[in-house]
Predict the 3D structure of the following.
Amino acid sequence: MLCQFTFKNYGSYKDETTIEMQAENIKEFEDTLLKSSKDEKKYLPLSVIYGPNGGGKSNALEALVCLIGNVLAPIALVKDGRKVESIPVSPYKFTEDKLQNTTDFEIFYRIDKNEYRYNISYLKGKIMYESLYILTENARKPTKIFIRRENEIELGEELQKEKVNTNNNLNIPFISFLVISYNIETINKAINFFTNISLINCSSEEFETQFMPLMFENDDVKKIFIKLLNIMDIDISDYRIEELPDVKDGIKIFTKHIINGKEYELNLLEESSGTQKLFALLPRIIFALRNGNLTAVDEMDAKLHPKLLRFIIELYKDKEINEKGAQIIFTSHDLTTMTKDVFRRDEILFACKNIENSSEIYSLYEIRDTNGEHIKTTTAYNKQYMEGRYGADPYLQKILEWEV
């Protein structure tokens, strides 16, 4: 479960920016919140990021992608016998001292009853700092697993007992080296959180053909998938898969329809683009919900009817369906769902650029009206957003005021 993700000097973000998943103390959708058995803290099952084009919505998710990629890529490359190379880190460009500032990532997350805190900082492609701490169930303060300061690595007690070698490849994260070289339970659990994050870019041209064969071959996932399609009034009764070596991902999908008692079959590519997107997206959502994983989706509303988008949102808010505590963070332009009936105020985030052309993120709950009070739940959030009252102005007000 993600608690908090913070990054600095990445993409369009100059200053420290946080995506906060710990819930505010407000009386909205309390029954949907994820609870920690350790300290009774409550966490959000989802967050949505709104904002104008170029405001930094996608960059916020790309920061998470960058962190995960740099941690996991070395492990996959070594496993495949390939050369290990770090993933480029793109710092904020519009500053004179851009070559002197580190790009920093910090992530807090929970696995079972333990909380992990992982930090890593880059400068010109070089790792300047890295650390991993764990706060166990009955501990009062975090325990150091390791700290890395450029080329020097300080081991915590557990790694000292394992006699871990600190002369590793300095171009890759130390946590990645530990997974590659050792079998340490604490490290394996810490890395599992990263491996179980699903990152989806719905705006990609290839997305609708990026199917996951293992999910489609899983009978339980298939049964749930067909049921959800039917609930959404999509009249697909079944599907079948043909394995074709010359096709990307090695499969071709055919959907089955029953019309007037007769069965008909279509190539999935003959279905609407919205249905194709559901075939690419929904199995991943089902898989994440069944396993309690985190999913990050860019432009989830693209080619998706607002009612279908709302349906997916409600899957995460339903405790009986989301019994494993899965979470989703997604970007969207769809304003029909920006209402008190769909989201808590702390679940609605805005990304926009300030006068320094640097992006920043803040929640609807953080915004104060002219009387210094929080935005009330009786407010039409989407209407005020379109009027430019929340800062992340989608240009409508400027268009309305434009004079020829």
User: Anything to note?
Assistant: The chain has a mean pLDDT of 88.
